[in-house]
Amino acid sequence: xARAPEEQNGTVDWSRTALLTGTSRGQMPxxxxxxxxxxxxxxxxxxxxxxxxxxxxxxxxxxxxAQTMLQDAGIDTTGLDFDATYRDVEVGGTLxxxxxxxxxxxxxxxxxxxxxxxxxxxxVAADQAPPTVLGVIAVEARSxxxxxxxxxxxxxxxxxxxxxxxxxxxxxxxxDEITVSGLExxxxxxxxxxxxxxxxxxxxxxxxxxxxxxxxxxxxxxxGSVHATDPESADLLDSVTGGSVTVTSPPMTGALDxxxxxxxxxxxxxxxxxxxxxNIELVEAASSVVGAGNVINNLVISDLAETVPRSQTRVxxxxxxxxxxxxxxxxxxxxxxxxxxxxxxxxxSVSQAATATALAAAGAANLRPGGEVRxxxxxxxxxxxxxxxxxxxxxxxxxxxxxxETVVFGTDSDELVTSALAxxxxxxxxxxxxxxxxxxxxxxxxxxxAVGYNRDLSQRRADAVVAYMSSAGIEIERLRSVGxxxxxPLEDNSTQQGRVQNRRVEFIAKESF
Length: 513
What we know:
Distance between the termini: 187 Å
Number of helices: 14
Radius of gyration: 56 Å
Largest sheet: 7 strands, mixed
Shape: elongated
Number of domains: 5
CATH architecture of the largest domain: 2-Layer Sandwich
């Protein structure tokens, strides 16, 4: 048995017996009841420390595994932090623009890409990163022909400088209202778009257009419209804008310019007309004087637009003048958009007067008449009345095809069409050359309608022709109108074309009525 501690020479006895019995100096006595209380506390403390350590270990593993899972799933974890509470994990920090909170929760709760299978709940408390702001290209160039205003926005100063350099070479007064965003370009080919727009702006050379609007955006196409001053400038502008801008220009115009030379045997036609019909009309007029074999046709048909409209009326006026050359020894005539001039030598005063009358009538076509036709030969013996009748009828017969084509009427109409007037002017000119015969104007209809009504309609048509010829200067005593109705058809009334030809007038020269 151990001894109780004894103090020997100032020391204490710490023998096992003294400790167990509590007789050691300065100690409370131990007993079994004290151990029964202390031992469970020691065990509980150990268990608590062990549990805390285990939980913290699990939480560290959960946090590390959560980051690995997201990275393996292709989710950027930059800027994210993970806070685990045992088997629950909260994702904090800042999400990237394209990160989806729902996808993150799904990946973590299904434990995708990790050997850990005990993440219970996942929540996302991270802030969403704001979207990246990109700079757009949106520029407008607007000009009235002398100035150029640039407005809009570009990403960089270099973009702006490129556009301004192109604008400065145009000769226009440039007003700069372009702003620089300083942002990353939204377009994948911003430099190419700026180059394309600058090229288009540089094509707006002063004097080559009247107004323009050019636009460019992030879609990369230059759009807008330009009104060029002429077709050549339009072609150039169309090429520099790449064909994506609407470029228009006024049509090229040309002037009517015809000269006629008659040497007594042949007629030479030179110059420019605006269409095949005008060419044919002048050739036919010349042929009526010298015959088709003695006409030299050098006329050119222009493919340009008329500088002055209604060239056909001026060509018809010249044609009427040419037909009077039959009474001249020689002549030359010129005509343009504004003037008609005839110089020649007449064989007699009658021919001189006929040409002068036809020349004066050109005023109705807005032509200023000029020139002089002189009588240079002795007066020829006066024609007999019958000779005048025969010559007048010959001229009327030579015009008959033209009369049938142009002096026609619509169904149930007695109104003269515009094309008829030029032809009737030729009839008037022929009657002026032969002043003694009288002329019967016969009106005819197709077979549509009642016989009596058609006779009345044909009379009204003949009256309309006589009224026009009288207003053109023919004495009313030399004119007579007769309505023949449907009694003398030229063509078959069973066809549309035939009925059109039957709605006509015919002229007969006579000694008297």
